[in-house]
What does this fold into?
Amino acid sequence: MKTFIFVGLVGAIAMAGTTAKAAEIKVLTAGAYKAVLVALVPEFEKSTGHKVVLDNDTAGALQKRISGGEAFDLAVITPRVVGDLAKDGKVATGSQTNLARVGIGVVVKEGAPVPNIATVDAFKQAVLEAKSVAYIDPASGGSSGIYLDQLFQKMGIADQVKPKAKLKQGGYVAELIVNGEAELGIHQISEIVPVKGAHLVGPLPAEIQNYTTYAGGISAAAKEPEAAKALLSLLTSETAVAVLKSRGMEAAPGS
It folds into this structure.
C-alpha cells in the first residue's frame, strides 16, 4: 500500500509540474540530508523518468562551490546558506523551503560500555573520560563540528579535548568509532543511525542540544527548474516525513 501511495504522489507531482521529457537533475546536498534523498530518489526516478545526480559535501564547502559558479538544479543546505545564495542571485527568489532538522547525538561501538549522557554534567564527564573523541573538523565547514568546537570552549574543556580529538573532514564520524580509531563520537543523529556496528547512546541533553535545519533552494540558473521543483515538492510530502523519522530526523518546524 505504501508503494502505491508513493508512486501516486510522485506521479501527481510529475504531471502537475514537470516537462514531458525526462530530465537530469543535479542536486547538491549537505551531509545529514543525503540519506533522505538516497531513500526517496529511486522511486522518484522510476515514476517520473527523471534522473537525479547527487553530490554531497559540507554546508560550508557547498556555499563556496555555488558562489564560485558551480552549476546545479537543486541544493539542500542550511537556511542561512540558502538565504545568502539567494541574495547573491545563485538561488531563485521564493524557492527556499525548510525541509528537516536533526539534533546531535553520541555514539559508541556496539558492545562497548555505554556512557551516561543524561545531564550536561554527565555528558561533560563522558567526554573527559573518553580516551579519544571523534567529531567533524570545524575547519571543513560542517555545522556539527563548528558547534561542538564552541560548546567545548563554553564548557571549559577545549584544552582537554584537543589532544585526543579525532577530526573527520566529512562523512560519517561513526565510522571512526566502528573501526576503532576513536572511543566516543559526537555527530548528527542521522549520520549515526545508518552506520553498521555503531550504537547511538542518545541525543545531547536538551540544554546543550543544537539542531541543524536543512532547506532546499532551486538554482536561479537551473537547466531543469520544473523537474527540480517536482523533487522539492516531494521532499515536503508525508512520504518524506516518514523517511525522515526512519533516518533520525524530523520535519522542520513550519515546513
